[in-house]
């Protein structure tokens, strides 16, 4: 699943809805979020990502973050969320061959 733009107070509800739709319509338990096109993410956005991770873990799944830009990576590090999420420098090859998630 690729996210673009900013994840903030104004855009987070749309992302949250998209996660809810994905989890409701699909048996998906493994999600890789390509963050290479995310320019900014505030605490509201991080909370949406955490909530999605929690819902996936309740199903026995997980969510990983891939290719965050330096500003987003810094937020992950400062908040300690880089130890909660698996963070890849690039999108993992195995997720490229999987069925598209978004």
Automatic annotation (TrEMBL):
<comment type="similarity">
    <text>Belongs to the anti-sigma-factor antagonist family.</text>
</comment>
<dbReference type="Pfam" id="PF01740">
    <property type="entry name" value="STAS"/>
</dbReference>
<dbReference type="InterPro" id="IPR036513">
    <property type="entry name" value="STAS_dom_sf"/>
</dbReference>
<dbReference type="InterPro" id="IPR002645">
    <property type="entry name" value="STAS_dom"/>
</dbReference>
<protein>
    <recommendedName>
        <fullName>Anti-sigma factor antagonist</fullName>
    </recommendedName>
</protein>
<feature type="domain" description="STAS">
    <location>
        <begin position="1"/>
        <end position="98"/>
    </location>
</feature>
<dbReference type="InterPro" id="IPR003658">
    <property type="entry name" value="Anti-sigma_ant"/>
</dbReference>
